[in-house]
Amino acid sequence: MGATAPIPHLTVITFLFLLPTIIQSHPSTYSLLPTIIQSRPSTYSLLPTIIQSHPSTYSTISVTDFGATGDGQHYDTSAIQSAIDTCHTYSTTKPCYVTFPPGTYLTATIFLKSNVVLNILEGSTILGGTKLEDYPKEWDKWYVILAENASDAGITGGGVVDGQGLEFVVKFNRRKNVMVSWNQTGACSGDECRPRLVGFLDSTNVKVWNVTFTQPAYWCLHIVRCENTSIHDVSIYGDFNTPNNDGIDIEDSNNTVITRCHIDTGDDAICPKTYTSPLYNLTATNCWIRTKSSAIKFGSASWFEFKNMVFNNITIVDSHRGLGFQIRDGGNVTDVTFSNINISTRYYDPLWWGRAEPIYVTTCPRDSNSAEGSISNLNFINITANSENGIFLSGSKGGLLRNLRFINMNLTFKRWTNYIGGLVDYRPGCQGLVNHSTAGIIMEHIDGLDVENVNMRWFDGRTVQWDNPLDFRPSTVYNISLLNFHSGFYRQ
User: Higher model confidence: residue 9 or residue 477?
Assistant: First the structure.
């Protein structure tokens, strides 16, 4: 028998050049890559050439290949960030997926970059840290996941991002939890200094889909100065007694589409805001919402224009307010349509803004130094509401409500909680809470309201004492049209 042929010795360089062929025939060898790179850092420079000639090879990277443990006890921040950075550096033509196998990945802030998609698989959780040192020094970068100036970045996979929001509760209270504030650092002020969950800032072509966000300590999904954002099939769960845990905040961003989302949280669910520039072209469809605040709320940050918004086929359940406008800072709102909306609103503790209004449209200035914004061209079409309170339409002397249309609406009013009614809520700022008899629609400072095919029903019993269908503030309401408007008692 002849001697056995010696096994050839592959240098690291030779191995890297042969790697695409090796992986194709033996995929398991991919797990060797991090070890080789760690032992021979100089060979890392060869990767661009290999990836350029074999772009499909590195379309997916696992965080465990970079040392992530996924045990929920040890921080995996460095491993996750290394995986993101590698994807970003060597994927220039198509997205690279950073995959999280089943497990719990405790982390400080991670920075998502262009062409990188976090692929959080079912059974896996990214767990946000709860210590101040887990977050950057700048308070406006306090996110568990943060993308800045990124393009074609996203999050998907069917897994969970958990902000551990209950760890930030100082005192649990059924009325409203008392929360931690990191304002002692001097980086921020007030009682809302807590980390947000996910933020995309100054980014384009953002995509978030098929993922669950849970227990944010503050705002959950924050879209800031972004262009072309798609959010679909996302579930958001926030503690129902925690303030400021908004679902989706869209700030100064254009061309945003939200669809098939489930949002169950304490504070506002979908919340467009304008701080530094206008907000155009927002569409939200096929969503389910429950909140102790507003299901959909414009503002209250409203320094610039809102224009071209569509909200269609949305179910709002047991919320403190349905469709809301809190325009407080001089920005104007125009061309907004709500259609095919089912609303159920009820009273909660008055510590929360809202008084069970199914529709709430207001423009009063925040304070004496604030400008008055206007709201015009609002359409409410095919709306069904079951509520403990009526609709509130309140412009201001310099910020009229113009050209509002209510078409094909069924409004049913009935009390079923024990909270005190008879209050109008102008908050934030303005007049605060004001005693006022309840009505089907309260109107002030309006020029142009068309009501067509609207049926308003009142359950007898406790509602008998507030069965006034239309309440006009004298000398402030003009150009009202009522066509096929009905109001009357409803008896089971």
Answer: 477
Q: Cα separation of 138 and 153, whole Å?
A: 22
pLDDT band with cut points at 50, 70 and 90 for residue 5: very low
**Distance in angstroms (rounded) separating the CA atoms of residues 288 and 99:** 29
Residues counted in the chain: 492
Question: By C-alpha distance, which of 294, 307, 218, 299 is closest to 254?
Answer: 307
pLDDT tens digits, residue range 109-123? 999 999 999 999 999
Give the number of other CB atoms < 10 A from CB of residue 94: 10
pTM of the predicted protein model:
0.88
Cα 320 versus chain centre, distance: 18
CA dihedral 214, 295, 152, 277 (to 10 degrees): -130
CA distances from 120 to 8, 154, 159, 229 (A): 40, 11, 5, 19
**What pLDDT, on the 0 to 100 scale, is given for residue 492?**
61
Q: Could you tell me if 236 and 220 are in contact, meaning their C-beta atoms sit under 8 angstroms apart?
A: yes
Cα torsion angle, 59, 62, 67, 72, sign: positive
Pull the structure tokens for residue 119. 């692929």
Listed residue (364, 299, 387, 367) closest to 336, CA to CA: 299
Residue 42: predicted pLDDT: 43
Strands 178-179 and 169-171: antiparallel
Half-sphere exposure of 445 toward its Cβ, with a 13 Å CA cutoff? 17
Task: Kindly state the tokens that stand for 312.
Answer: 């269609």
